[in-house]
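anyone seen this seq b4? input:
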Amino acid sequence: MNVMEKVLKEKIDPALTVGNLSALGSRALGRQVEAVEASVLTGGCWNRVIAVSFHDEPEELVFKISPQERNAGIEREYAVLSFFTEDTDMPVPTPRLLDASGRIIPGTVLVMDRIPGRVLHHLYGLLGRTQRDAVSEQLGHFVGRLHQNRSRGFGGVELAPHERQTAWADFWLPRFDNVMREMTETDLLPPSFLEEVTRVRSRFPALLDIGAESTLTHYDIWSGNVMVNPNGSSAQITGFIDVPGHWADYARELSFMEMFGTADRRFYEVYAGYHALDEGFSVRKNVYNLKMHLKHISMYPDQSYYRQGARACLTYIQRFGA
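predicted toks r here
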C-alpha cells in the first residue's frame, strides 16, 4: 500500500457513510436523496473517486475527494467543468457541488454527474471497424467545434484574458524545460542525445510563435479520457473526463491525440471541415511530442516505443528548415 492510499483509507474512507453521502448528494441535486451504494472508481494516487447511487434516482453521481483542505486542483476542476458545461457543447461531467468545508467529509469534495458508458481505452479491442470509424468521426466533430472557440492569451479557462500568458512559448516552454531537467538528473538517455535536444531547444521560441490568438482545448484527450457507449454496429461518445481545460495552441491538442491513437485519418478528414492546419503544424507537433516522449521515458524506462519516438521527433525538428 502506498502512502497516499494509506491516507485515503485512514482519513476519507471512514467518512463515506450512507448519511454523509446522502447529505452531500442532497445538496448537489437540490432535493432530499438517500444513498444506497458506493463503489470505488479509482484511488490510491491522489484522490478517492467513488460512484454513488441513490434510492429512486436513475443516475449516479461521482464524488472526487481530496484529503487536503481547500485543494487547489479540485477547486480548479470544478471551475473548468463549469466553464465547459456552460460555454461549450463538449459533453463533460456536470459539476454539482464543491464542498471544501471539511464538515461532512474531511478535505475537499467535488460532486459531479457520472457519464454513462465505458472508457474507450478498455473498448478498443472490442470495437469493430465501423464502430472505430464512428468514434473517430465523432471525435473530429467534437474537437473541431471546440477549436472554433478563440480568445487571446494562453492559460487555464478559469483565467480572464489579462491573467493569461501573452505568448504561447511563455506558457508551454517551462513545461518542456522541467522535463529536460528531470531527464538530465537520470541516466536514461545518453548525454549526447540530451545535448542534441538542448541545441534544438534554442529554436523553440521562434517555432512556437503563433501570435496572441489562442484556441480552446480539452488538453488531455486520449482513450482513457473518452467515454463510449457501444450500440450494436455503431458506437456513441457519451462524454470526456479529466479536463485540464486550457487556451492553447490547437496543435498541442492534436499532437497529443495523435501520439496516443485518438487522431487518425478519419478524424483529420472530419476535423478539416472545422479547422485548417497551418504551415507550422507538423514541426510544432513534433516539438510537443518530443516532450511527451521524454516524459514517458522517465515513466516507462523499459519501453522502447518512447525512445524511438523521441529520436524520430528530434530528427524531424533538426531537419525542419535545414
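The chain has a mean pLDDT of 95. The chain has two domains: 3-113, 118-319. kinda curious what u guys think
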